[in-house]
Amino acid sequence: MRKQDLILHKHPNEAYYDLFDDWNLIESSFAQQYGIRLRLEDEMTWDEFSNLLSGLGSETPLGKIVGIRSEKDQKIISEWPPEIRRIRNEWLGRKIKKRPVIVDRKKYDKEMINLQNMFKSISTIRRKEGENGK
Length: 134
Hints:
Oligomer: single chain
Strand content: under 5%
Structural class: mainly alpha
Shape: elongated
Number of strands: 0
Order of helices and strands: HHHHHH
Number of helices: 6
């Protein structure tokens, strides 16, 4: 296997597949490359599964999709037919939705204080209403 065929390691700091959303691709890729039917496999350890997954080649169903999702060269992307670009764009859209929110700690602390004060105010109003018989 050539180095460029190890498509799942093309960009090691970025994941271009999702274990849940891409499970069908993972299953078919294991069957194609290793002859393993994952639905029938009940003794494979997580370490073995992870190692085999990371070794899937670019000609497997998952490898082909990962190749599309991970392409960075705009010239290549511009030459793709619309259906292939759609696959990549859908992935990018999902990736943006799943991106963790980074919060400025000072802003967070300020908002938490505001929230606490709001609840104190509500509590004070309710207590006064209770004292006044409302």
